[in-house]
Amino acid sequence: MRIDLHTHSVVSDGTETPTQVITAAARAGLDVVALTDHDTVAGLSEAADRAAALDLEFVPGIEVSCRHRGVSIHLLSYWHDLGDPEVAAMLAKTRDARLDRAREIVQKVAQDYPVTWEQVVARSGGAVTIGRPHIADALVDHGVVPTRDAAFQQILAGNSRYYVPHYAPEVTAAVKTLRRAGGVTVFAHPGADARGRVVPTSVIESMARAGLVGLEIDHRDHSSEQRERLTRIGARLGMVRTGASDYHGTGKQNRLGENLTTPDAYAALKAARG
Ligand code: AMP
Ligand code: ZN
Ligand code: FE
Ligand code: FE
User: Fold this and answer.
1) Residue from 12, 67, 75, 132 to probe ligand 1 pocket by mutation (most atoms less than 8 Å from CB)
2) 85-110 and 171-180 are packed helices; what angle lies between their axes, rounded to 10 degrees?
3) 249 belongs to a structural domain
4) Do 66 and 9 meet the contact criterion of CB atoms below 8 Å apart?
5) Any residues with CB less than 8 A from the CB of 272 and at least 6 apart, and which?
6) CA Rg, the chain, in Å?
7) Shortest CA distance to 264 belongs to which of 244, 241, 245?
Protein backbone atom coordinates (compact mmCIF):
# COMPACT_ATOMS: atom_id res chain seq x y z
CA MET A 1 0.00 0.00 0.00
CA ARG A 2 1.41 3.36 -1.06
CA ILE A 3 -0.15 6.14 1.01
CA ASP A 4 0.61 9.88 0.46
CA LEU A 5 -1.33 12.24 2.74
CA HIS A 6 -0.16 15.74 1.74
CA THR A 7 -0.69 17.31 -1.72
CA HIS A 8 -1.72 20.69 -3.16
CA SER A 9 -3.74 21.74 -6.22
CA VAL A 10 -4.37 25.05 -8.05
CA VAL A 11 -7.12 25.70 -5.53
CA SER A 12 -4.23 26.86 -3.33
CA ASP A 13 -0.65 26.96 -4.58
CA GLY A 14 -0.18 23.75 -6.54
CA THR A 15 0.04 23.92 -10.34
CA GLU A 16 -2.43 21.13 -11.22
CA THR A 17 -6.21 20.95 -10.89
CA PRO A 18 -7.58 18.52 -8.26
CA THR A 19 -8.43 16.15 -11.13
CA GLN A 20 -4.86 16.31 -12.41
CA VAL A 21 -3.38 15.74 -8.95
CA ILE A 22 -5.45 12.58 -8.48
CA THR A 23 -4.63 11.38 -11.99
CA ALA A 24 -0.93 11.92 -11.26
CA ALA A 25 -1.34 10.06 -7.96
CA ALA A 26 -2.72 7.01 -9.76
CA ARG A 27 0.11 7.21 -12.27
CA ALA A 28 2.63 7.37 -9.40
CA GLY A 29 1.23 4.07 -8.14
CA LEU A 30 -0.43 5.44 -5.01
CA ASP A 31 -3.28 3.49 -3.41
CA VAL A 32 -4.35 6.23 -0.98
CA VAL A 33 -3.99 9.99 -1.48
CA ALA A 34 -5.12 13.08 0.42
CA LEU A 35 -5.63 16.55 -1.04
CA THR A 36 -4.57 19.13 1.56
CA ASP A 37 -4.79 22.60 0.03
CA HIS A 38 -3.88 25.56 2.23
CA ASP A 39 -6.84 26.95 4.21
CA THR A 40 -9.53 25.73 1.81
CA VAL A 41 -11.54 22.60 1.09
CA ALA A 42 -12.83 23.88 -2.27
CA GLY A 43 -10.96 21.23 -4.29
CA LEU A 44 -12.09 18.18 -2.34
CA SER A 45 -15.29 17.20 -4.14
CA GLU A 46 -13.62 17.33 -7.57
CA ALA A 47 -10.69 15.27 -6.24
CA ALA A 48 -13.03 12.74 -4.61
CA ASP A 49 -14.92 12.26 -7.88
CA ARG A 50 -11.74 11.64 -9.84
CA ALA A 51 -10.41 9.26 -7.17
CA ALA A 52 -13.64 7.26 -7.28
CA ALA A 53 -13.36 7.02 -11.06
CA LEU A 54 -9.78 5.73 -10.79
CA ASP A 55 -10.51 3.39 -7.88
CA LEU A 56 -8.10 5.24 -5.58
CA GLU A 57 -8.83 5.68 -1.87
CA PHE A 58 -9.25 9.41 -1.25
CA VAL A 59 -8.76 11.22 2.05
CA PRO A 60 -10.37 14.66 2.27
CA GLY A 61 -7.94 17.00 3.98
CA ILE A 62 -6.61 20.49 4.46
CA GLU A 63 -3.40 22.22 5.57
CA VAL A 64 -4.41 24.93 8.03
CA SER A 65 -2.10 27.93 8.55
CA CYS A 66 -1.59 28.46 12.28
CA ARG A 67 0.73 30.41 14.51
CA HIS A 68 2.30 30.27 17.94
CA ARG A 69 4.14 33.32 19.30
CA GLY A 70 4.92 34.55 15.81
CA VAL A 71 6.11 31.17 14.52
CA SER A 72 4.19 29.82 11.52
CA ILE A 73 2.82 26.29 11.95
CA HIS A 74 1.09 24.12 9.34
CA LEU A 75 -1.56 21.77 10.65
CA LEU A 76 -2.97 18.97 8.50
CA SER A 77 -6.49 17.82 9.22
CA TYR A 78 -8.27 14.83 7.72
CA TRP A 79 -11.95 13.89 7.58
CA HIS A 80 -13.28 16.85 9.59
CA ASP A 81 -16.88 17.90 8.92
CA LEU A 82 -16.61 20.19 5.89
CA GLY A 83 -19.81 21.97 6.88
CA ASP A 84 -18.68 22.82 10.41
CA PRO A 85 -19.35 26.56 10.88
CA GLU A 86 -16.54 27.11 13.39
CA VAL A 87 -13.95 25.59 11.05
CA ALA A 88 -15.36 27.49 8.07
CA ALA A 89 -15.16 30.80 9.97
CA MET A 90 -11.59 30.11 11.05
CA LEU A 91 -10.51 29.40 7.47
CA ALA A 92 -12.40 32.37 5.98
CA LYS A 93 -10.66 34.72 8.40
CA THR A 94 -7.24 33.40 7.37
CA ARG A 95 -8.03 33.59 3.64
CA ASP A 96 -9.17 37.22 4.00
CA ALA A 97 -6.02 38.08 5.93
CA ARG A 98 -3.89 36.38 3.26
CA LEU A 99 -5.45 38.56 0.57
CA ASP A 100 -4.61 41.80 2.38
CA ARG A 101 -1.16 40.52 3.19
CA ALA A 102 -0.40 39.44 -0.39
CA ARG A 103 -1.41 42.94 -1.56
CA GLU A 104 0.99 44.45 0.98
CA ILE A 105 3.85 42.21 -0.12
CA VAL A 106 3.21 43.06 -3.79
CA GLN A 107 3.13 46.78 -2.94
CA LYS A 108 6.56 46.49 -1.32
CA VAL A 109 8.06 44.30 -4.04
CA ALA A 110 6.64 46.60 -6.75
CA GLN A 111 8.82 49.43 -5.47
CA ASP A 112 11.89 47.53 -6.70
CA TYR A 113 10.66 45.00 -9.29
CA PRO A 114 8.18 44.96 -12.17
CA VAL A 115 5.09 43.29 -10.68
CA THR A 116 1.49 44.39 -10.17
CA TRP A 117 -1.38 43.06 -8.06
CA GLU A 118 -3.42 42.42 -11.21
CA GLN A 119 -0.67 40.18 -12.58
CA VAL A 120 -0.49 38.21 -9.35
CA VAL A 121 -4.25 37.70 -9.32
CA ALA A 122 -4.18 36.65 -12.98
CA ARG A 123 -1.27 34.29 -12.26
CA SER A 124 -3.07 32.69 -9.32
CA GLY A 125 -5.56 31.24 -11.82
CA GLY A 126 -8.60 31.54 -9.58
CA ALA A 127 -6.93 30.06 -6.50
CA VAL A 128 -9.15 30.29 -3.44
CA THR A 129 -6.12 30.76 -1.18
CA ILE A 130 -3.55 33.34 -2.29
CA GLY A 131 0.06 33.03 -1.20
CA ARG A 132 3.65 33.91 -1.89
CA PRO A 133 3.95 31.19 -4.57
CA HIS A 134 1.58 33.22 -6.78
CA ILE A 135 3.71 36.34 -6.33
CA ALA A 136 6.73 34.16 -7.15
CA ASP A 137 5.09 33.01 -10.39
CA ALA A 138 4.47 36.63 -11.46
CA LEU A 139 8.14 37.41 -10.77
CA VAL A 140 9.19 34.39 -12.83
CA ASP A 141 6.98 35.64 -15.72
CA HIS A 142 8.86 38.94 -15.60
CA GLY A 143 12.23 37.20 -15.63
CA VAL A 144 13.12 38.68 -12.24
CA VAL A 145 13.88 35.17 -10.92
CA PRO A 146 14.17 31.87 -12.80
CA THR A 147 11.95 29.73 -10.51
CA ARG A 148 9.60 29.76 -7.51
CA ASP A 149 12.44 28.34 -5.46
CA ALA A 150 14.70 31.24 -6.39
CA ALA A 151 11.98 33.74 -5.46
CA PHE A 152 11.66 32.09 -2.03
CA GLN A 153 15.42 32.15 -1.53
CA GLN A 154 15.57 35.90 -2.05
CA ILE A 155 12.67 38.31 -2.47
CA LEU A 156 9.95 36.27 -0.76
CA ALA A 157 11.99 34.69 2.04
CA GLY A 158 10.63 35.00 5.56
CA ASN A 159 13.53 37.25 6.55
CA SER A 160 13.32 39.47 3.46
CA ARG A 161 12.50 43.20 3.71
CA TYR A 162 9.43 42.57 1.57
CA TYR A 163 7.97 39.91 3.85
CA VAL A 164 4.67 40.50 5.64
CA PRO A 165 3.09 37.89 7.92
CA HIS A 166 -0.65 37.18 7.94
CA TYR A 167 -3.15 36.44 10.70
CA ALA A 168 -3.49 32.75 11.52
CA PRO A 169 -5.24 31.05 14.45
CA GLU A 170 -3.33 29.99 17.56
CA VAL A 171 -2.35 26.38 16.90
CA THR A 172 -3.82 24.72 20.03
CA ALA A 173 -7.16 26.47 19.39
CA ALA A 174 -7.10 25.20 15.80
CA VAL A 175 -6.37 21.63 16.93
CA LYS A 176 -9.37 21.80 19.28
CA THR A 177 -11.67 23.36 16.68
CA LEU A 178 -10.80 20.70 14.10
CA ARG A 179 -11.10 17.94 16.71
CA ARG A 180 -14.60 19.13 17.66
CA ALA A 181 -15.48 18.90 13.96
CA GLY A 182 -14.34 15.27 13.90
CA GLY A 183 -10.97 15.95 12.30
CA VAL A 184 -7.75 14.00 12.76
CA THR A 185 -4.88 16.49 13.00
CA VAL A 186 -1.25 15.97 12.11
CA PHE A 187 1.52 18.55 12.60
CA ALA A 188 2.93 19.14 9.08
CA HIS A 189 6.76 19.20 8.74
CA PRO A 190 7.25 20.18 12.42
CA GLY A 191 11.04 20.34 12.11
CA ALA A 192 11.44 22.14 8.77
CA ASP A 193 13.94 24.64 10.15
CA ALA A 194 15.45 25.65 6.81
CA ARG A 195 12.29 27.60 5.88
CA GLY A 196 12.04 29.54 9.12
CA ARG A 197 11.71 29.20 12.86
CA VAL A 198 10.13 26.03 14.24
CA VAL A 199 8.38 25.64 17.59
CA PRO A 200 10.01 24.00 20.64
CA THR A 201 8.98 20.59 21.94
CA SER A 202 6.76 22.19 24.59
CA VAL A 203 4.40 23.41 21.84
CA ILE A 204 4.13 19.89 20.40
CA GLU A 205 3.23 18.76 23.93
CA SER A 206 0.49 21.43 24.17
CA MET A 207 -0.83 20.37 20.79
CA ALA A 208 -0.88 16.73 21.92
CA ARG A 209 -2.90 17.72 24.99
CA ALA A 210 -5.31 19.61 22.70
CA GLY A 211 -5.94 16.45 20.66
CA LEU A 212 -3.15 16.28 18.05
CA VAL A 213 -2.95 12.77 16.59
CA GLY A 214 0.20 12.67 14.50
CA LEU A 215 3.54 14.13 13.42
CA GLU A 216 4.54 14.29 9.76
CA ILE A 217 8.09 13.12 10.34
CA ASP A 218 8.98 11.73 6.91
CA HIS A 219 9.09 14.92 4.84
CA ARG A 220 11.85 16.14 2.53
CA ASP A 221 12.35 19.33 4.56
CA HIS A 222 13.52 17.31 7.59
CA SER A 223 17.17 16.58 8.23
CA SER A 224 18.06 13.17 9.70
CA GLU A 225 18.70 14.95 13.02
CA GLN A 226 15.18 16.40 12.99
CA ARG A 227 13.70 13.01 12.11
CA GLU A 228 15.50 11.42 15.05
CA ARG A 229 14.41 14.19 17.42
CA LEU A 230 10.78 14.03 16.25
CA THR A 231 10.77 10.23 16.41
CA ARG A 232 11.74 10.40 20.10
CA ILE A 233 9.11 13.08 20.85
CA GLY A 234 6.43 11.26 18.88
CA ALA A 235 7.09 7.97 20.67
CA ARG A 236 6.91 9.67 24.07
CA LEU A 237 3.63 11.45 23.24
CA GLY A 238 2.01 8.49 21.47
CA MET A 239 1.84 10.32 18.15
CA VAL A 240 1.16 8.54 14.86
CA ARG A 241 4.15 8.92 12.50
CA THR A 242 3.23 9.98 8.98
CA GLY A 243 5.19 10.65 5.81
CA ALA A 244 4.11 12.48 2.67
CA SER A 245 5.32 14.31 -0.41
CA ASP A 246 3.80 17.81 0.00
CA TYR A 247 3.37 17.72 -3.79
CA HIS A 248 2.79 21.11 -5.52
CA GLY A 249 2.86 19.97 -9.18
CA THR A 250 5.66 21.81 -10.96
CA GLY A 251 5.66 24.48 -8.22
CA LYS A 252 8.13 22.51 -6.12
CA GLN A 253 10.63 19.66 -6.57
CA ASN A 254 8.54 17.35 -4.33
CA ARG A 255 7.36 14.22 -6.19
CA LEU A 256 4.22 12.22 -5.34
CA GLY A 257 5.02 9.20 -3.18
CA GLU A 258 8.56 10.33 -2.33
CA ASN A 259 7.63 9.88 1.34
CA LEU A 260 4.87 7.56 2.50
CA THR A 261 2.69 6.74 5.50
CA THR A 262 2.67 3.06 6.53
CA PRO A 263 -0.60 1.09 6.44
CA ASP A 264 -0.42 0.70 10.25
CA ALA A 265 -0.07 4.45 10.76
CA TYR A 266 -2.90 5.09 8.31
CA ALA A 267 -5.12 2.65 10.21
CA ALA A 268 -4.27 4.49 13.45
CA LEU A 269 -5.31 7.82 11.87
CA LYS A 270 -8.58 6.29 10.71
CA ALA A 271 -9.24 4.88 14.16
CA ALA A 272 -8.88 8.39 15.63
CA ARG A 273 -11.71 9.81 13.52
CA GLY A 274 -14.31 11.68 15.54
P1 AMP B 1 2.63 31.57 2.18
O2 AMP B 1 1.61 30.53 2.56
O3 AMP B 1 2.05 32.62 1.32
O4 AMP B 1 3.37 32.14 3.36
O5 AMP B 1 3.71 30.82 1.30
C6 AMP B 1 4.25 29.60 1.79
C7 AMP B 1 4.01 28.52 0.77
O8 AMP B 1 5.02 28.62 -0.20
C9 AMP B 1 4.09 27.12 1.34
O10 AMP B 1 2.94 26.41 1.00
C11 AMP B 1 5.20 26.43 0.66
O12 AMP B 1 4.82 25.18 0.14
C13 AMP B 1 5.55 27.35 -0.49
N14 AMP B 1 7.01 27.43 -0.53
C15 AMP B 1 7.83 27.62 0.50
N16 AMP B 1 9.12 27.61 0.09
C17 AMP B 1 9.07 27.37 -1.23
C18 AMP B 1 10.07 27.22 -2.22
N19 AMP B 1 11.37 27.29 -1.91
N20 AMP B 1 9.69 27.00 -3.47
C21 AMP B 1 8.40 26.91 -3.79
N22 AMP B 1 7.40 27.04 -2.90
C23 AMP B 1 7.74 27.26 -1.63
ZN1 ZN C 1 2.01 25.35 -0.48
FE1 FE D 1 3.27 23.31 4.72
FE1 FE E 1 1.93 21.69 2.13
Assistant:
1) 132
2) 140
3) yes
4) no
5) 184, 213, 240
6) 18
7) 241
Q: What is the pTM of this model?
A: 0.97
Main-chain dihedrals φ then ψ at residue 56, nearest 5 degrees: -110, 140
What would the pLDDT profile of 178-197 be if each residue is shown by its tens digit? Answer: 999 999 999 999 999 988 89
DSSP 8-state class, residue 222: -
Determine the pLDDT at residue 46: 98
Is 105 domain-assigned?
A: no
Residue nearest ligand 1's atom 20 by CA? 149
Query: How many structural domains comprise the chain?
Result: 1
Q: How many other C-beta atoms are found inside a 10 Å radius of the C-beta of residue 167?
A: 13
Instruction: Show the domain range for 201.
Output: 3-84+183-271
Residue 133 lies in a domain: no
Q: What is the pLDDT of residues 204-245, one digit of tens each?
A: 999 999 999 999 999 999 999 999 999 999 999 999 999 999
Q: Is residue 225 part of a domain?
A: yes
Q: Candidates 7, 152, 189, 216: which one to mutate for ligand 1, based on the most atoms within 8 Å of Cβ?
A: 152
List phi, psi (to 5°) of 271: -65, -20
- From the CA of 152, give the closest atom in ligand 1: 19
Spell out which residues line ligand 1, taking CB within 6 angstroms: 13, 38, 131-133, 148-149, 152, 195, 248, 251-252
CATH of the domain at 248: 3.20.20.140
